Amino acid sequence: MNKNITVAIDGPAGAGKSTVAKKMAEMLSFEYIDTGAMYRALTLKILKLGLDPMSVEDVVNTMNSTSIDFKDNHIYLDNIQVDKEIRENIISQNVSYIAKIKEVREGMVRIQQELAKTKSVIMDGRDITTVVLPNADFKFFITASVEERANRRYKELIEKGENNISYEDIKREIENRDKIDSTREIAPLTQSRDSYKIDTTNKTIDECIEEMISMINRR
Ligand code: CDP
Ligand code: CDP
């Protein structure tokens, strides 16, 4: 009988989690689950409805009548693919307020745990090693300096043609998100004691993947 393998990755924005997780999932034929995309999708719906991301009642009521699914590595909000919209900067600016809400976290964690029950997965986010998959086979904490992370995100926006945002704006947004994510009451971003830490500030994506695969092979 083959056991399903779980790889859990946590870390702050722009550290390289999703890039390495996607590549490793392809190499290992695992499913990649981007949990941040789920919080972003709910944020998109709240903003589209003109609701306040800080209103717990509005957010929870909206979540209870919303469907969020993954199909073939795409994310669907109420059956509409929203891969592109959820990456907009307005979503990044608001998502951490929604992700602080206890009922939202409970709902998302339940779905994420179900997704990992029937297949081998690589899942990334902020509370995967600590709350969602505390018994994961492999746990990583991927980080980088805030300057490097802001620089990576700034480059991405310039490449997408979003020239109306400065590097300083991006750095401020990331610092604000780091602060909310790591000081919130429920499931704050933190390195669990049994996670293997990789600082990618001066590492390429391939170097990071090599380090992860060699750590996995060692076990
Ligand atoms: O891609 P990026 O690192 O910018 O962020 P993300 O992984 O898409 O996550 C967006 C936001 O969702 C985070 O800043 C957290 O506020 C929230 N999040 C969370 O609370 N728990 C997770 N497991 C994943 C994301
Ligand atoms: O998922 P997370 O927010 O942790 O980061 P990401 O979206 O995977 O990576 C942010 C950007 O940094 C992407 O454009 C990656 O190509 C880039 N990156 C890099 O230049 N060097 C690395 N070692 C890791 C990521």
Automatic annotation (TrEMBL):
Its EC number is 2.7.4.25. Residues 7-217 form the Cytidylate kinase domain. It is found in: Cytoplasm. Keywords: ATP-binding, Cytoplasm, Kinase, Nucleotide-binding, Transferase. One of its GO terms (molecular function) is dCMP kinase activity. Gene3D superfamilies: P-loop containing nucleotide triphosphate hydrolases. It catalyses: dCMP + ATP = dCDP + ADP; CMP + ATP = CDP + ADP. InterPro entries: Cytidylate_kin (IPR003136), Cytidylate_kinase_dom (IPR011994), P-loop_NTPase (IPR027417). Belongs to the cytidylate kinase family. Type 1 subfamily. HAMAP family: Cytidyl_kinase_type1. This is Cytidylate kinase. The lineage of its organism: Bacteria, Bacillati, Bacillota, Tissierellia, Tissierellales.
